[in-house]
TrEMBL record:
Residues 1-31 form the signal peptide. Keywords: Oxidoreductase, Signal. The keyword Oxidoreductase applies. The keyword Nucleotide-binding does not apply. Pfam families: F420_oxidored (PF03807). SUPFAM superfamilies: NAD(P)-binding Rossmann-fold domains. Gene3D superfamilies: NAD(P)-binding Rossmann-like Domain (3.40.50.720). Residues 46-137 form the Pyrroline-5-carboxylate reductase catalytic N-terminal domain. InterPro entries: NAD(P)-bd_dom_sf, P5C_Rdtase_cat_N, STEAP_metalloreductase. This is NAD(P)-binding domain-containing protein. It comes from Stigmatella ashevillensis.
Amino acid sequence: MNRAMRIRRASLLGLASALALLLLPVPRAHASAPEKAVSRTVKPRKIGIIGTGKIGGALARLWVKAGYEVLISSRHPEELKPLAEQLGPKARVGTPREAAAYGDVVLISVPYGALPQIGRDHAKQLSGKVVLETGNPYPQRDGPLAEEARLKGTGQTSKALLPGVRLVRAFNAISAVDLSNQSGREGTLVGIPIASDDEEALKIASELVKAAGFEPVVVGGLERAKDFDVGTPVYTRLLTAEELRKHLGLPQ
């Protein structure tokens, strides 16, 4: 083989090698990097609202706006039809019993003196459900029961009045006006204290607090609900979550 042929053969072999390299799979630049977490949208829950007054009505508006379906109720459900029409197709009207049966989660927002009857009348429908309860006891309105709750704490008192539910004390330490006006405010959100003996119920309640445009602050079990009862230093004060934790002696 002469010199020219050897050079040509070498050139062809080099070209073949280059082409083979080009056909090899190119490694991904970020193959070893962890994949970004996929954001998950919480599946909207159905919420039954027993007592659609100022607090219940405000939360109905906020939750419908966030994409939840609600059934609003009162002792006179016909009076709630205008509100349901304003809220649109995600809202319907019913009796308290229907609200208790309808909701995956139930909000009870009634005068504290009405709580014993709610517990008796709708025990079957409420059994095993996460129940957010907002009532505050006032002796001049609710009688001896309110005096007992003030002494014992609403967490423990409400637990006895609503047996069989996964109770969360929530939205009792904010006024109805602030609930409407401070939702999703610019800057740092207002903190909402919540308490329950059920960890999963606290997670669900936290989800609903966030959906309403506030920052949940888990205070502890129902025994600690008295720390944000009516008359306490944090009651109806517009505090951030950080400020609320500081006032309640919670870790930051």
